[in-house]
């Protein structure tokens, strides 16, 4: 792609391009990738907002498709220079079966890899997750670790298992020969907890607070740090990796990079209050209001209720044994690998990220 810096001749494909992260990647590419000729957006559910993107100089092609269907993926990938694979089932609430999570997140990723190999696409960026590393099932903290920090990544939950398997497939595919005889170059980005405009879980917490009279009740000690990263900076890292991967293939190919920015280290609940507080909510308690054993009991009860109610309705509360364990285990990153390898610097400061997110919560709720 070296000779295309001045001309618009590149074709990008973003899978999951209508999701929370995917939409930000799509918009960031249109704003900050001048070499784009065509941007393909592949998703099971296409958003109506895509229409507004079709008036610009870049050809925007919306493709309704399923990553579990190899032929649909191959048709979407054919002719693309770069694939950014964000599509996936982000389900830690028991909404979908373990089999479906595996089929989408693992088999779907395999389909993307094979499509690149069979059609000659050379650059594949995979949106992995912090959960590939942890927190592990032993509840061992990962305190401001980096990509080389030793940590026993042991998972049982279908979601982290699927992300770890998919990431391994992507990294192992680095160097495979694609149609045309050149090597496939892959890398994986590991966001911690992404926040920002479009974050459904943030809205869920906001609605929960409204239902409880403007109050949320602390369940996790403030000392338990949880890594968070602004969606705009995650999108920017994807764009930058896609731009640099060819020229730095020897360094970046087969590598993983945590997504990070200058968001502060706080507990999950305290971090959320950076946005929900200015929207009128209050976090009650400087310490957890309930003993941990009671939270464990309530989480187990939620799992039982989910199972009992499943024939009638989907009951998927925020509190379950997995989310409680994750929330209650410190997991934060401190790294500069992305800066060292491809010059990444956060595009949005913490102040900007916070302001944009507050504004979104306020308008999203206002519009609701
Ligand atoms: N949200 C986070 O905090 C976070 C953190 C780290 C990593 N990630 C990863 O980032 C990626 C995007 O996550 P998100 O939070 O934007 O989730 P999301 O659910 O908002 O977006 C996922 C998108 O993938 C699409 N999709 C799902 N199944 C599909 C299928 N079979 N075929 C085609 N498209 C399909 C969905 O329609 C959706 O638009 C995921 O791979 C997730 O594992 C998310
Ligand atoms: C009900 C309380 C115990 C409350 O504090 C639970 C919070 C819980 C819903 C979230 C705490 C940590 C979150 C996860 C983390 O941010 C990283 C993730 C990786 C990403 O790939 C997908 C989302 C998630 C699993 C994220 C999900 C919500 C939490 C478990």
Condensed summary:
This is 3 beta-hydroxysteroid dehydrogenase type 7 isoform X1. GO terms for molecular function: cholest-5-ene-3-beta,7-alpha-diol 3-beta-dehydrogenase activity. The chain is α/β, with parallel strands linked by helices.
Polypeptide structure, described:
The protein has 368 residues and is α/β, with parallel strands linked by helices. The chain has a domain at 7-200 and 226-264 and 332-348: NAD(P)-binding Rossmann-like Domain (Rossmann fold). 40% of the residues lie in helices and 16% in strands. It is built from twelve helices and 13 strands. It has helices spanning 20-32, 70-77, 98-119, 158-173, 200-211, 231-244, 249-252, 268-276, 292-309, 321-327, 337-342, 350-367; strands at 10-15, 36-43, 59-64, 82-85, 123-127, 142-145, 185-191, 193-195, 215-217, 228-230, 255-259, 282-284, 331-333. The strands form four sheets. It has a seven-stranded parallel sheet with strand order 3-2-1-4-5-7-11, with helices on both faces. A two-stranded parallel sheet has the order 6-13. Strands 8-10 form a two-stranded parallel ribbon. Helix 1 (20-32) crosses helix 6 (231-244). The chain is globular, with a radius of gyration of 20 Å. The mean pLDDT is 96.
